[in-house]
């Protein structure tokens, strides 16, 4: 059986043109997927059964009912639970997660806090002059990649949205567009760009500010060399930005994780706003996991914030105080529920150490670093492969992921629903 | 010989393709590595594939060396993952985001071997 127009549930590009071949309820071939998508679709080794860590410190197989019971007991006895992850599951499961957070009075945070969380802070300060990826494909004649390497992280982004495909107003595709990459090292994306500006690590804010000065006609304020980049190169780039018909600025962790964090984003957004006084320019974060954008949407619908502390009885948001790593660094968390993510692999060691010493429940299709420190492990179905669900593409477009094969694993949503029923009290809305 | 570096971490396609098979040798090979330019390789007096100890004031970890011609002198890249996170800066600067890039540290030759994922994670349960 061939399934056409299947959506890839790996990265934030949500490519929706895959053809998947299924035989005997197993995916045996995937056409048009990149290496990342194909590796996910074709499958990896799974967690076979729920597990509970015994007194000897060994994970022992258990029934779903007993794992859910144990998880519920851990959460009910916690005073400062952290519900973290959510980037690789459906909006429906995310919605259940926020509800569980409300019932428990928990902190609910997503992987965005170690990814594009600073982007959200920047956007809250300056707004987001953006466009759909379709608009960019059809109109953008200048593409800037700043602190990102889509050839590695979003391998089909350039061929589907930002580079090679002819657009409605750009009938020669790549020949109609200029690529510029700004990075601290020569990446594969930089190597195929028309221009590459190599800047000193941690100098993004300064270089962006110099470009703002040039775009606003304050050339005299810019010195001959700015953090490794000559004024001549900056003048040429600012000229390209001002003279294009439609510019698109994509950025990644090079901005959000470097010195300046959200202020880098603030500055990039301000530059985009400046450029819009002279031409049309849009800016879009390259979001990593396929539904990290969805979590921001869901949590904002339900609580008003893209991550939330519900311990006060009312939603509270203050990144830097209630973000997962800040809580863990202060050793405040006394139990955690990790859904569809792997903080043990992606948090600094201080956070992982504090995560490991308290009860940890993991809900995930795959064994990973977090499994090694988990006390309860509940395996689930893969959204977009074994179960359907809604996800948001990096530009905010919602798409319905399809079920491609049958599975005996329950969905994240079903497991969360059972935990909610166990921990809710009379009067809770569930 | 010791070599001072500015460490950045980030995604690679090999890391991403094995993100759901973290206990595999492919994930280990993709992440337990440090990419540096030819000048720094020369300073260390090592060749590709040699083991190197990465140290910062936040921790240390042993990984394999890889040559990356795109890296300027003094910049070391470690793919995001449990090995990189041993040496990153936990300070979130008040916005929730730890310092995954721009960590000052050093590289030095070592006879130690990189720990596999299970061995590395078992240190957190001690």
UniProtKB/TrEMBL annotation, chain A:
InterPro entries reported in the protein's UniProt record: Formylmethanofuran_DH_bsu, Mopterin_OxRdtase, Prok_molybdopt-oxidoreductase
Gene3D superfamilies in alphabetical order: 3.40.50.740, Dimethylsulfoxide Reductase, domain 2
Keyword terms: Oxidoreductase
EC number: 1.2.7.12
Gene Ontology biological process terms from the UniProt entry: methanogenesis; respiratory electron transport chain
Residue span, Molybdopterin oxidoreductase domain: 46-408
GO cellular component, one term: membrane
Stored SUPFAM superfamilies: Formate dehydrogenase/DMSO reductase, domains 1-3 (SSF53706)
Gene Ontology molecular function, alphabetical: formylmethanofuran dehydrogenase activity; NADH dehydrogenase activity
Domain of life according to the entry: Archaea
Pfam families associated with the record: Molybdopterin
PANTHER family per record: FORMATE DEHYDROGENASE H, RESPIRATORY NITRATE REDUCTASE
Designated name of the protein: Formylmethanofuran dehydrogenase subunit B
Species: Candidatus Argoarchaeum ethanivorans
Upper taxonomic lineage: Archaea, Methanobacteriati, Methanobacteriota, Stenosarchaea group, Methanomicrobia
TrEMBL record, chain B:
Domain Molybdopterin dinucleotide-binding as annotated: residue spans: 7-102
Record's protein name: Formylmethanofuran dehydrogenase subunit D
One Pfam family of this chain: Molydop_binding
MF GO annotations: formylmethanofuran dehydrogenase activity; molybdopterin cofactor binding
Keywords: Oxidoreductase
Upper lineage: Archaea, Methanobacteriati, Methanobacteriota, Stenosarchaea group, Methanomicrobia
E.C. number: 1.2.7.12
Keyword hit for Oxidoreductase: yes
Source species, domain of life: Archaea
SUPFAM superfamilies: ADC-like
Organism: Candidatus Argoarchaeum ethanivorans
The UniProt record lists the keyword Transmembrane helix: no
